[in-house]
């Protein structure tokens, strides 16, 4: 893949004009990652030597992050860490302009991103067969986001399974219900997901030793409830990911971590943190 703009000129300008320049030819993976967390318009973008992280929050009780590692890019130059807020809906729309070509074999669509620093927009250049689309996206001061974290020492239960299995299970649940209940135990029934509404109750029990579940580490019995509208956005990543890890702590904080592996062997991740319902009174909210 060759970019039609002058790469050397852009790189030279980088040392004086830009704090960040990145280029890649695999737009499909980037678009899939961003679409998976695009349930709100506003996202906080953090750039470092490790790559890019875009985070979206909902009511301070649900948080989703898409990780774009440095290895995903053909060129990734950054002179200082940066943090800003951006309209992720517009960003996804810009990147998807050539989606028909991007989603086909042998795609020739390439991307370059540029950022000069605080107060400046992000410039997105998309090129296909000599045609260049130049988009300028406004950046804003970032909102304060919660520091959701599940340190390994605080994890009570962990399940690593194929995304396809979780997708099949969740598709069987009643979508009209307001909440979902997750049950994990070191003893039978081990792993169960259920929904309960005014008209029906659905329980799906998963065997803990199936080939579709690669890891089942359950230290103690735990049962927590979550708002189904908070679970639904986390389901968006299932169609493009290979595996998903479910982790919970003592408080019932739930983390979905999806892994997406590119054709080049680069592992990308999408994380969703979801706070549990505090008590049954929340069921009626």
TrEMBL record:
The keyword Protease does not apply. Its main location: nucleus. InterPro entries: Cell_cycle_checkpoint_Rad1, DNA_clamp_sf, Rad1_Rec1_Rad17. GO terms for cellular component: checkpoint clamp complex. One of its GO terms (biological process) is DNA repair. It is found in: Nucleus. Keywords: DNA damage, DNA repair, Nucleus. PANTHER family: CELL CYCLE CHECKPOINT PROTEIN RAD1 (PTHR10870). This is Cell cycle checkpoint protein RAD1.
